[in-house]
Amino acid sequence: MGHKNESRTSNTGAAGQRAGAHLPVTISKTGKALYYGGKVFRSLKGAGFQSNYCDAATGDAYGISGPRRGGDDRLYGERVPTAIDEDVQEEYWASIRGLPERVTKNIVS
């Protein structure tokens, strides 16, 4: 209890994923940390340049944001192919984008 699971978009390759990947993250009770793939990402509290979280272990900076209904999930809204982690495919297409007929698609283009 206290942790919330949801989909987020990594704009800078969080946790070894390529940039633009939709990832299943767990958000801390306070909202100041995200958890994914055994890593902890701490909020930069507005101090980052094109990033808003850092890997708590390495200090590497990442841009991580919530996906948008219109599909312009990238930092600058560029339309390039974006991978969707299998764990959040259904949530992304059905709940966020409102396109349940696409739940088998693992790339947003």
Strand order of the largest sheet: 6-5-4-3-2-1-7
Query: How would you spell out the order of helices and strands?
Result: EEEEEEEEHE
DSSP strand count: 9
Please tally the helical runs, counting DSSP H or I stretches of 4 or more residues: 1
Please, how many domains? 1
Low-confidence stretches: 14-18
User: What distance lies between the first and last C-alpha atoms, to the nearest angstrom?
Assistant: 35 Å
Helix-residue proportion: under 10%
Rounded to the nearest angstrom, the radius of gyration is: 13 Å
Mean of the pLDDT scores?
77
Biggest β-sheet description: 7 strands, antiparallel
Which structural category fits the helices and strands?
Answer: mainly beta
Which of globular, elongated, flat, extended, rod-shaped describes the shape? globular
In short:
This protein is mostly beta strands and 109 residues long.
Write the layout of secondary structure elements.
Layout: E1 4-10, E2 22-27, E3 33-36, E4 39-43, E5 53-55, E6 61-62, E7 64-65, E8 82-83, H1 89-96, E9 107-108
Antiparallel strand pairs: 1-2, 1-7, 2-3, 3-4, 4-5, 5-6, 8-9
